[in-house]
Amino acid sequence: MLAEKDAPVFIALDAWPVSNKKSPDDSDFSALLRVFGLMNINSILYSPPSPVYRMIIRELAERDEAARRDRKVVPIDCETRTFFHDIPVLDEITPEKIAAALSKRKSAITKDGAIISYGVVTPEQAFVSFSSTCFSLSVKYFYDSLLYLEGCYKRKSPPEEAFIKKFLEISSASAPVLPGNESPRLIPGPPETVDEIMEMLAQAGRAVVENRLVDSYFGNISYIEGGLIHISQTGSSLDELEGCIDSVPLDGSSSVGITASSELSAHKGIHALTGANAILHAHPRFPVIMSLLCEKEASCPNRGFFCHKACPEKRYAAGIPVVPGEIGTGPSGLSNTVPPAVARHGAAIVYGHGVFTCGSNSFQGPFDRLMETEKACRHDYLELVKKYLSAFDVKGDFI
Amino acid sequence: MGKSLRVDLSRGEIQVLETPAAICGEFLGGRGAGVAMVAGSIFTEAWDSPRMPIVFATGPLVGTAAPTSGRMSVVSRSPLTGTVFDCSVGGRFGTELKKAGFDFIEITGQSDKWVWLDIGNGHARIEDASALQGKGTGETGLLLGKGSTAVTGIAGENGVRYASIVFDGHYLAGRGGLGAVMGAKRLKAIRVFSGGEGKKVIVADPDGLRKAREEIMRLLRASQAVFGEFGLAEFGTTALVDLIHARKMEPTHNFRKTLFSGSSNYSGYAMKARYRPKKTGCAGCPVLCKKISFEGVPLPEYETVSHFGALNGIDSLEAIVEANRLCNEYGIDAISAASTIACYSEINGVKPAPEEVSALLRRIALRDGDAGRALAEGSYRYALSMGRPELSMSVKGLELPAYDPRGAYGMALAYATSNRGGCHLRAYPVSHEILRKPVATDRFSFEGKARIIKIAEDLNAAVDSLTACKFVFFAAGLEEYARAVSAVTGKEQNVQSLLRTGERIWDLEHKLNAMNGFTKDDDDLPARFFEEEGTGIIHTKKGTLTVPPIDRDAFLAARENYYTIRGYL
Ligand code: SF4
Ligand SMILES: [Zn+2]
Questions:
Q1: How far is the CA of B520 from the centre of ligand 1 (A)?
Q2: For chain B, what are the domain ranges?
Q3: CATH says B414-566 is which class?
Q4: How far apart are CA A384 and CA A171, in angstroms?
Q5: Tens-place pLDDT, residues B259-318
Q6: Tens digit of each residue's pLDDT (9 = 90 or more) over B455-487
Q7: Which CATH architecture has domain B3-192?
Q8: Dist CA A184 CA A317 (whole Å)
Q9: Mutation probe of ligand 1 site: the residue of B299, B428, B469, B470 with most atoms within 8 A of C-beta
Q10: Strand stretches in B327-377, DSSP E
């Protein structure tokens, strides 16, 4: 059995193990190493996340309905739903329990707030799953909390005190994982050479990650010039784009774009409709949360299954259109839904997923818009929370 | 489980048996079941012995609503490599076989005269094939009439060591010469026709299967490599031409170079513009990666265009499409044929024009004249007979496909360790090294690759036994397929249980090869890759440089790691 520890344990295995725990006598190390005998994986990560996520995980593990009933948490944002399905909660952290949980899922959480994840192809997969778990659980926590408070408000029955206490604690501890107030200064453009384009893309990508506008490192970015769209490759880290840009002819005359971001078609569509040549897509948290919030929820026959695919309503969050759209190019793919919305408003939020912005000749405009969208959505969220809580005379220092 | 057929062509007998539940339990179906069924004969029998079985095996997903459930496996011993050998094949044959009420066909014996096997709903007959002998695969298929067909061409009749089996006109059990195994039995063809009213596959948990299917579809739709603008659905595998060119790992002039200036002439885009292809594909597949020209000519796959193109220095799309048509018609594996011709060209210092390539293909299929007879043996035996074995670009006698290993080190290791010889599909590292799925790995590094290759080999052994299509795994994972197969069979599977099954299959194949004298020395690449640099400038972590030869020591160290992980010491 693994003790709940404050320090991470990471092991990567090719023929022999490599770990941050040097000593094979370390009991955590040997316990985790045993998981390799039970699963065909090449790396495993056990780690408590930063304090606010740890609080969120503990709270979900203890209070969430599905977690209580089935010992699993079901994420609600689309990205995570596509790849994670649900996240099991482990009460005992034995190698056997870990292997049983991870045989079916990409990560598991412990009731004490740690995350266990793994890689099958590369060790990076373990870290990506780890950070996606943090993102998705925080989206779930804030969204579910808002719904809960709204319910209390409407029913005029005060929220549980334990909930309020934790909510205030978590909210006020959230600052370190949220974007700050200042936008960085980006290269003004327009770039004159391909090298300058690459530099601009790399800088803007890094700024998106540094300002915490994505979960893990993902999102995508493109710049269009001279009949080519220079776009980040699929699965590339926005903070390390050097060497990970595909230059794809807009006329479709080469299929090198097969390794480009899966949102290539959306980027091309935005360019075609708006003429903008600098396009940014990221996953800031509060736009994702607010996109899930729907007034028609109770009465809508499509609720649940169709929201992210084919919502017929015109919806907005912080004045920006919220559109349905699955990743990719299918009939309900966001490559069809996003461009027209961006053409009308200069930005669009994809339901439960993220934000697209665009501009011309430089990434300053699209970047600032992304920040503004995050701030505006966070502001709206807090206003709602305040309204609901004030009915019960609860005041607090939020996020 | 359902029924299976056991056919003895020496005696002209057919038995209908219960499908062996133990084999399905342990090896799923498809490749795994086929390997288990031929295992008893691999050590004792030559590929052309009447006692050597050839098995046609469907998997548990065939005929169900699981995406890409229309595939199956053909398994026997390869005339080319001498190893146990399986081919995963699409088309409609597997689905039709299931509908006719059968899971597997196991064929042994040798008929006195040419025959074909006619399978109907719940029954089968051996028919005289003298009228089909000497006919091309297309014509034979047409003459057999309704239903789904598996045909060996004149190459198979003549024992060409890399003769293919052609299913439904253009789906191939392409590699390793299984068409020659059919030929050795004087079995020209098999037809299955369930009459359109055949049995439905019973699914234990239809709702569970529907959910798994939805998940898989959702992941497919999200995948740039599958349904994206340049994905498989749009261009078929020829979408890879531009990419492999851009990565400077395009095997050119018998692997002397890694870049060919003429490849844009036969890229996916060029093919689309010239032939305005229609999409087609295997039964039960939503992707439909196969392309047929508007005139109805099946268009070549990536491997074929690249090997008749760059590998032989031909930049004419028409010539390549014609070479592909001839390979289909004669029933020859296009990868081995193109590579054997490139080897012949290098040894003789010639560069055959497109018409000469067509003429050579015909002579190979007919074993006509000295060149035809020599080249029908495959590049390795040919190069050896010429005293230049190092110029056969093969592993264990199987010619390498169109990914130069100097441009992808996982591919280098996987070519070497592949238990059916030089094959890209056993571990399919192209997926992560080139297509960045499920995540990108550094293609110029061996770091971590031994374990990656081992796991991928197990995974693909399971996929080939389910039987599903590898292309889906650019998007979906074994998680989703574990749910699909659990729902179909009612027996709970998860990723790890499927991987363990894959490992069991791999270990069995490895053991069979070891019994036949294969050793570490066979797990190696042609010396060229360690000695000669490639062509063109690439950007690596070590800087910007010309594609370097593979570091022999690093390769050997990774191979040692691989054996350690496998426990083969
Ligand atoms: S993707 Fe292509 S090869 Fe695979 S099952 Fe579909 S049509 Fe067949
Ligand atoms: Zn996104």
A1: 34
A2: 3-192, 238-396, 414-566
A3: mainly alpha
A4: 14
A5: 999 999 999 999 999 999 999 999 999 999 999 999 999 999 999 999 999 999 999 999
A6: 999 999 999 999 999 999 989 999 899 999 999
A7: 4-Layer Sandwich (3.60)
A8: 24
A9: B469
A10: none
